[in-house]
Each structure stands twice: as structure tokens, then as C-alpha cells.
Specification:
It contains 3 helices and 4 strands. The protein has a two-stranded parallel ribbon. A two-stranded antiparallel sheet has the order 3-4. It has a single domain, classed as Glutaredoxin (3-Layer(aba) Sandwich). With 106 residues, it is an alpha+beta fold. Strand 1, helix 1 and strand 2 form a beta-alpha-beta unit. It is globular, with a radius of gyration of 15 Å.
């Protein structure tokens, strides 16, 4: 599936609030190329990108950032950004395919 996107790396940044023993086991036991899981223990990346959730609707959201997707090309330019206010909604695969195709164009 990802073969169509040479050089694709998916980095999943997780707040300390999202990491428990189950999440750590999943990351350790599932080497899912092209996915890389990174822990942001002090939420520095989350704060730098301004995606910290400040208005919580549920207790489960405490310390969790807004789900955000960036597509960055090989030169470092951001080609796509989507920030979700509701962690229960996901981007459609079609939207991501279109964004990836656009990022590959010169």
C-alpha cells in the first residue's frame, strides 16, 4: 500500500498523557514501517506547533493534543495540514491520498 510513496515516513508524536503500558507494548512489538512513534514527554513539540487541547470535553482528553496531520515534502515544506477538534473523527483515506499525490508533484 505504501510502496506508491517512496521515502514516506509517518511520525506519530504522542504526549506523555497518551502513553501507558499498553501503548508502550504496541510500539515495542509492532515495527510498522513506515510508521515511527515518538514520545513528547514534556509536550514541547505539541506546544511548539500550537496543538495543545485547552478546552476539554471529556476527562480522557486531559494532556492530549488536537489530532493533527502534516504532510511535509522532502525539502521540509508543509504541503498539507489538518487539525481535528474532535479526536473521534478521522481524515478519510481519499483526502490523505490526494494530499500525498500533491506533495509528490514538483
Amino acid at each position: 500500500m505504501f510502496e506508491r510513496y517512496p521515502g514516506l515516513v509517518v511520525i506519530y508524536v504522542m504526549s506523555q498523557a497518551q502513553v501507558d503500558a499498553k501503548a508502550q507494548r504496541f510500539i515495542r512489538d509492532h515495527q510498522l514501517e513506515p510508521f515511527v512513534f515518538l514520545l513528547d514527554p514534556d509536550d514541547e513539540v505539541i506546544d511548539r506547533y500550537g496543538i495543545r487541547k485547552t478546552k476539554l470535553e471529556e476527562a480522557i482528553e486531559q494532556g492530549v493534543p488536537h489530532p493533527t496531520t502534516y504532510i511535509v515534502d522532502s525539502s521540509g515544506a508543509i504541503r498539507f495540514k489538518d487539525t481535528r477538534r474532535d479526536f473521534r473523527t478521522w481524515l478519510s483515506a481519499e483526502v490523505l491520498r490526494e494530499a500525498l499525490a500533491g506533495a509528490q508533484r514538483p
